[in-house]
Amino acid sequence: MFVWEGTDKRGVVMKGEQVAKNANFLRAELRRQGITPKVVKPKPKPLFGSAGKPVTPLDIAIFSRQIATMMKAGVPIVGALEIISSGNKNVRMQKMVNAIRADVESGSSLSESIGKHPVQFDELYRNLVRAGESAGVLETVLDTVATYKENLEALKGKIKKALFYPAMVMAVALLVSAILLIFVVPTFEDVFQGFGADLPAFTQMVIGLSDFMVAWWWLIALGLAGAGVATVMAFKRSTAFQHFVDRMVLKLPVIGQIMHNSSIARFARTLAVTFKAGVPLVEALDTVAGATGNTVYEEAVFRVRDDVAVGYPVNMAMKQTNLFPHMVVQMTAIGEEAGALDTMLFKVAEFYEQEVNNAVDALSSLLEPLIMVFLGVIVGGMVIAMYLPIFKLGAVVG
Q: Transmembrane residues, as ranges (predicted)?
């Protein structure tokens, strides 16, 4: 990346940033554009944050929409990639897009170029782009992929929002409780010792918990941190543990139904997009399995793939898993019979995405009073426990 300064034919000073192999190439390019370069130098790297933020799925969704829009408008793919790179403020995203552009310029296809970045572009994405290139409809496929990624990120955002708020409130409540037990309750305990009377059982219980926290807070903190790290590591490395957690999540009240509907919506939309792009059905199912977001559904989709590979219709294979609702199976059957499987799956995806939206909104409304009750019981209970002896003393004095 170079920064440059020069004058145009009217003598107006112009400045800018541009990617080039070296300064001489950039000077020649500027002169070709009618600009007389005065200063061309490498862009200085910032002292902090030079590595840039990680490339997120949302960045890939935006990238997909940008390149789809520009290609549909007639912008060549190399030019589109250059515009996306120069307009992106994330250093890592810039480097990745520049690398893709360089590969495309050297003769590689877009699917081959993004294949060198498997972390950011998963197998599904690469297969869709490859299918679009083979069929000569890359612009259309990229537009479909962009819509798919946007819908998927919106759905994931909804679910994260539903789970993040109560989790944060509970974490804050537990933190406040720990602070009260370690720093505030011991002060009351010193006061109570001068009463010379028996304390209420509830107060004694809270003081006992406080004494334990004061003595062993470091062990509790280490235990919680260790348990958290061990759980995350086990979830990442153990397929059996991940399957157990996913199965338990699906059985939770309210949240379990949201996760069910989310997995069905992701399955339906991903399969519809893949099948519409021209990917063979068995190959599409193989790719779709990992996009469901739940290992229980992932295994079910693999079973569907195996059944379809030996000649079963998709709807019958789905029915055998005992996981997909009757409506989904029936709509899939209608789509297969009418030769419009992708259209019917899009309708299924839209229905279940709306179900997730409605359930998340209902969950938010339900959780607010429950969270207030939780906070009242935890914090209010400790306050009452500390003031009970004072009330008792007041009654004796009275």
A: 162-185, 215-235, 370-390
Per-residue HEC secondary structure of 145-213 comes to HHHHHHHHHHHHHHHHHHHHHHHHHHHHHHHHHHHHHHHHHHHHHHHHCCCCCCCCHHHHHHHHHHHHH
Cβ neighbours of 28 (radius 10 Å):
12
Query: Helix and strand tally (H, E) in the chain?
Result: 17, 3
Position 161, amino acid = K
Q: What is the DSSP letter of 55?
A: P
Where the chain has pLDDT below 70, the residues are 45-52, 193-197, 392-398
Query: Which amino acid is located at 138 in the chain?
Result: L
CA-based angle 77:121:67, to the nearest 5? 25
Q: What is the mean pLDDT of the chain?
A: 83
Helix/strand/coil (H/E/C) assignment for every residue in 100-113 = HHHHHHCCCCHHHH
Tell me what pLDDT residue 195 has: 63
SS3 for 6?
A: strand
Tell me the C-alpha distance between 34 and 27, whole Å: 11
The backbone region for 55, taken as left when phi is positive above 0, alpha when psi lies in -120 to 50, beta otherwise, is beta
